[in-house]
């Protein structure tokens, strides 16, 4: 297992459920933005998971709740008290208070209420991760620590292309190192035979 420190802004979508709720005369959208321990396939042969300590210390930063990662569609903000975030055994849970004077927020609330939109994503930098290289050539990353920028309610829960491209560059480098290692080991074996 190898530990890396990288800071490349990434976004991950999670197959979690959100719900619309009304209490105390206010509207909320709530659910899990990240779930710990699940194995998410980036592409065949490459997987990723989130460690249960990945968000330690990250929730004190200034974090926004967005619609589809769009910075012009802010639903809430933890520093303003309109976004509540906490970590539990399951993952990163969040609750956004809907601004009833914001038509975009009300439209999203209605879509979540009807279950037309019910998934999420989060934007972050990787500060620490472990990389496991497997005999079959596959690779698995465990995200150990992040800097969290935003959480989003999203229409399509897919890994963003930029995130996958960043991982694919890592994967290509891993494959190159493995091939070089195999070539070197083969050369050494051949020397022993001669």
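^ structure tokens above, recovered residues below v
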């Amino acid at each position: 297992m190898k530990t890396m420190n990288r800071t490349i802004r990434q976004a991950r979508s999670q197959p979690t459920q959100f719900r619309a709720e009304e209490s105390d005369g206010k509207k909320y959208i709530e659910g899990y933005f990240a779930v710990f321990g699940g194995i998410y396939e980036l592409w065949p042969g490459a997987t990723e998971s989130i460690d249960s300590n990945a968000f330690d210390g990250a929730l004190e930063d200034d974090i926004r709740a967005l619609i589809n990662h769009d910075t012009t569609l802010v639903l809430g903000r933890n520093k303003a008290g309109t976004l509540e975030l906490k970590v539990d055994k399951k993952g990163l849970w969040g609750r956004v208070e809907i601004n009833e004077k914001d038509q975009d927020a009300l439209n999203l609330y209605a879509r979540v209420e009807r279950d037309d939109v019910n998934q999420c994503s989060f934007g972050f930098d990787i500060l620490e991760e472990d990389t496991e290289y497997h005999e079959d050539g596959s690779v698995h990353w465990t995200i150990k620590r992040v800097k969290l920028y935003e959480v989003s309610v999203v229409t399509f829960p897919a890994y963003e292309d930029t995130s996958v491209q960043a991982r694919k560059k890592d994967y290509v480098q891993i494959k190159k190192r493995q091939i070089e290692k195999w070539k070197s080991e083969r050369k050494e074996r051949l020397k022993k035979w001669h």
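Residues 2-6, 159-165 have pLDDT under 50 and may be disordered.
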